[in-house]
Amino acid sequence: MRYLLCLSLWLASGSWDDAAGAQDPGVQTSFRVKYVAEGAVYLAGGRSAGLAEGQHLTVKRTGEDKNEQEIAELQVVSVASASAVCEIKSSTQPVQSGDWAFLSARDVELLQIMRTAKESKRYPQVISFTEGDPLDAELREYVPRPPSPAVNRARGRVGFEYNTIRGVGAAQNASTQLGFLLRADMTRLDGTYWNFSGYYRGRLNSRTSGPDTLTDLVNRTYHLTLSYNNPESRWVAGFGRFYLPWASGLSTIDGGYIGRRIGKRVTAGIFGGSSPDPTSWNYSPDRQIAGSFVNVEAGSFGRVHLTSTAGVAVTRMHWQPDRQFGFFENGLYYKRSFSIYSDVEADLLRTTNASGSAPAPASGPDHVVISRSYSTVRFQPIPLISFDFSHNYFRNMPTFDQRLVSTGLLDNLLFQGMSGGVRISLPYGIGPYLELGKSSQTGDTRTSWNHLYGLVVARLWRTGIRADIRYSNFASSFGDGRYRSVMLSRQMGERFRLDLQAGQQDIVSSLTGATRSRWINTATDWLIGRHYFIGSGFTMYRGGIQSYNQLYLNLGYRFDMK
Question: How many other C-beta atoms lie within 10 A of the C-beta of residue 391?
Fold first, then answer.
């Protein structure tokens, strides 16, 4: 007798539990927001957790009526091994550190298919037959899996930039530059487990005169990494400009790392490079660093998650001895309501020889001192409000570039001592925040108060403009000062974005003669058709040492090759 049956068989490991279609518990679908910048959200999870550029996430928050509300829509724009940067596509309330973002149902389904296919090396197949029962025979046959959607996936943009700078006042010199910009997320290159991701914007030729501008300094905070992460291999590696995935407190490293997994929870490795980021607390363009680390990770992101890293490193200035130190970075997170984070660096100090002036300590010729520590505790009892308490300490004077103070990139380095803050989420996307503390830097005869006030408005009146206004008054080891800044952004549909930032900072410091500076920076991004974009921007900077106008125009190509 002839008959026709159509069966969907899941030829995996022989267990029919997989055929039930239950969600794979190993797929991570929610990610903690660890940092929020202007128009961007940084997630505590990256490529190793399944995130990829282009994915969509929804930020949810439980309201007073106990109902879960969607407050923002995000899209992943850049992915590293253990972190991801998302663009805020829309929001009804400001996104805060400690919020949780959830993958869209479509992306979750794709991740489940990829994870199951990767582990089983089989895939669902529709089989038709007209006679006999081939079930037993088919179950014994090997059916190769289809290629992963991540294989040879390349997305991003590439372009060229024209830049002109003209001095104002006594310095009337002018110069032009050609630049290059790249944003890329390329996964599984040529079918391997090598990935290339990040963002770069810089000059192709150098200026004939003049120091770096504010735009130049911001551009040097880029990350661009070629990384290897094979879930079936014990080895991991990365090269380029990056945060060390297991110790981001070391700031940006321009170099490489290689690590080896030991079991399921331990990773050990080495790293080396230079420290090129002007927002680093111990920034110097001529410093080299090398070291080793061990990381232990336990728990789950849905409940309690623990990560702990310990390592040692040495630094050189012009290849001459500089520091020998140990670093310890620990984090404990409980769902979305509670977190503890600590980052400590301890230097090994050697006493001087007979010709030096420093006497040997009682404990011996060498001793260990804390050179840098930062600890913070965050508590969110209800979605409406969150509290944080921090302690910041520097043994030596920080060397970050002070021209970046009013951009907000150095807020976590301005206060020394204990501080506490609160953030409130009000209706209509209004979010005031406050941080107060007392400075207790080494050698102070008395403490001094530090203040930081801010207000975020998701939609300014009915204009659709997002605003972030802040004021800070600080006393730190590098000097005393204050700054005021405002950041405005407007997304017009899916193709045009306008940003404006303006600020003023006043600093009294022995490290700089620029007591007051003012700046305005504008930027536009316009997507043309499916593959092209045009961008432009203007910066006006007026300071005691630098006064200039800077204008740029870029043109480039967008791509998405599956």
Answer: 17
Residue that has been written with the tokens 């991570």 in this structure: 28
- Residue 435 identity: E
Task: Give the β-pairing of 366-382 and 385-394.
Answer: antiparallel
Rounded to 5 degrees, what are φ and ψ at 51?
-75, 145
The one-letter amino acid code at 21 reads G
Q: Residue 127 pLDDT more than 80?
A: no
User: Number of C-alpha atoms within 13 angstroms, CB side, residue 234?
Assistant: 10
Look up residue 521 and give its two tokens. Answer: 């920076």
Cα 445 to the chain's mean position, in Å?
38
pLDDT one-digit tens code per residue, 217-230? 888 888 899 999 99
The predicted-structure confidence for 505-552, as pLDDT tens digits, reads as follows 888 766 555 578 898 999 999 999 889 999 999 999 888 677 889 999
**Are 42 and 35 in contact, with CB atoms under 8 Å apart?**
yes
What are the φ/ψ torsions at residue 404 (nearest 5 degrees)? -95, 5
Q: What is the CA radius of gyration of the chain?
A: 26
Output phi, psi for 364, to 5 deg.
140, -175
Q: How many CA atoms, within 13 angstroms, populate the side-chain half-sphere of residue 338? A: 6
Alpha-carbon span 60 to 74, nearest angstrom: 11
Domains of the chain: 5-140 (2.40.10.410), 212-382 (no CATH)
The Cα 7–Cα 9 span in angstroms is 6
Q: How many CA atoms lie within 13 A of 443 on its CB side?
A: 7
Spatial distance between the Cα atoms of 562 and 153, rounded to a whole number of angstroms: 5
Contact (CB, 8 A) for 383 and 63: yes
Six-digit token string for 409: 């990139």
pLDDT at 476 over 90: no
Strand locations in 285-365 (E): 287-299, 304-317, 320-334, 338-350
> At 8, is the pLDDT very low, low, confident or very high (cuts 50, 70, 90)?
very low
